[in-house]
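re: that complex we talked abt at group meeting.

here r the seqs, copy pasted straight from the sheet so there may be weird spacing, ignore it
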Amino acid sequence: MTGPSAGAAAPIHDLEEAPVKLATLRSDNPDGRLVVVSRDLARCAPAPVPTLQAALEDWGGVAAPLQARADAVNAGTAPDLQPFVPAQALAPLPRAWQWLDGSAFLSHARLMARVFGMEESASHLPLMYQGMSHRFMAPLEEVPFRSEQDGIDFEGEFAVITDAVPMGTGPAPAARHIRLVALINDWSLRLIGAREMKTGFGWVQAKPACSAAPVVVTPDELGPAWARCRVRLPLRVNWNGAGFGQADGGEMSFGFDELIAYAAATRDLCAGTIVGSGTVSNEDCREVGSSCIAERRGIEMLDHGEARTGYLRSGDRVTMEVLDADGTSVFGRIDQRIVVTGGTAAPATEVAR
Amino acid sequence: MTGPSAGAAAPIHDLEEAPVKLATLRSDNPDGRLVVVSRDLARCAPAPVPTLQAALEDWGGVAAPLQARADAVNAGTAPDLQPFVPAQALAPLPRAWQWLDGSAFLSHARLMARVFGMEESASHLPLMYQGMSHRFMAPLEEVPFRSEQDGIDFEGEFAVITDAVPMGTGPAPAARHIRLVALINDWSLRLIGAREMKTGFGWVQAKPACSAAPVVVTPDELGPAWARCRVRLPLRVNWNGAGFGQADGGEMSFGFDELIAYAAATRDLCAGTIVGSGTVSNEDCREVGSSCIAERRGIEMLDHGEARTGYLRSGDRVTMEVLDADGTSVFGRIDQRIVVTGGTAAPATEVAR
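got the structure back, here u go
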């Protein structure tokens, strides 16, 4: 460490306020190779730790070297600088030990409850499920699905990545375990999901691998857009080139601190746990649009008595991006086509045989 | 390879029929050190591959060397033979990328539906949820819980561990991806679980880390006890030294082949995926007993109008073991005390704050 605190132990607080952008490039390692990315996403340089998982397991030890590298990348002085090529990027954590996805926008939950004539769940607790985490799709990768009959949908959401969180950690200390913020597309198969929800067991078939934007950022990299453990920026979703939604993450009814505390109530969270916000949704969804087709269909059912928008078709393109106040892309862009493999055209309610 | 097929390519079939017992010993590596264990669990020797995860990622390459090592361990001729000490064992996969737990005993589901006056779910599909997989507790480890008020319960079940299974794999080919069979205690917090089920999102708080018996075995190690992708042996559960249940795994309404096919319907399964049977339960549960307290309480409610058996208390000891026809322990024993940390005594329905 150099600077004002040189010679003294660096206060933890400083280490936590290291504005850094990180990405993972394809390599021989399934966990890829970690790079530090410039603020404008134009350049990058190898990080002083090989993988993001390794960094999260020793955040206290790597935060200062990461920030030093980020400073050099942003100044253009890093010796091993290279262009940042999104096509070379994997998901920041190509595989994670744990993915816990919340549903933290109550305006969405209330709307969907109205659509389906359901009772609203108790609003003093967030909803959360454990999702598949052994693979997150790369931001520009083609995404395979088995059948259009499954009701293929996207779900734009924010997520945070934590270091190790002990069981019983409350919201205030939980906030200090948020190391990185991410942009996720939580692909969902709606026609399977309705059946699985009724079992009470949650989703398995309805929730295949998620996709992730190429870049994750430390909370303070977001500046004033990070407030109350929420991302106060619109999440721009495009479907086949047309704007679909730009709902703002600031309207979360539960902050990520509360979601982490919920997740850690009865278990330790490992370093590299990803906690999601659920589909980003705003009260004025008729103006700003939605982050998933299911919500738009719900609005159509309320307004017109029927859903008019169909789910995704093979070949459809979905992009997601978040711009900061200056118009700079925060996380880079998810830009993917889906392809229906046709491996089976079985109805969603049947086991593949 | 030596023997009848020496000089020719070894048929895959032979490699798959390698009777082997494996365990993972504590080491500097969080994934431990893989050892081959003798049939009687008395001795072991280092496996020719460092970890179980690595073995599962290259099963075709390691099956023959593993079997050769197993032969030498059983013959007592392995040069680096050592006593197998269960206290040194971690869970066979101390952390796994994926844990998908089924509920494959319909007699249990039907009984619980009667107790709670619920509609039975469609019985042509197994139930399944995604569980926490980043930690499996060691077989003799003390297990921490936050509060007795959460309704602490055990769930004895069988599980299989697969290699990589492509999306859309049906039951018949799925059977060939079953590499190992395991014994699991799926700890459950019943008073939280009821609330979480109602949300449709499945369980997060209600399902902390599972425990595992020290030894996993290849299916053919089970001999005739492995039939129709089921373990036809009783799972012996003791609670504070008293027999609680010895339900037989052969009564699974869905085989592990069908559970894997269900799990792989819309996703690739990674090597090292663990698929569970759900609590082992038999039609004659009043005679053979149960593998979880919840089932016994259900029987009491039907028979006496009220549950008489309470959930676990701090200090309680739970053991699980499976003996083969010769009385040999197949998987070794789970033998654990629980300890309530008292980190919070909040009611189960509140977020820890």
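couple things i noticed - Chain A has one domain: 93-340. Residues 1-16, 343-353 of chain A have pLDDT under 50 and may be disordered.
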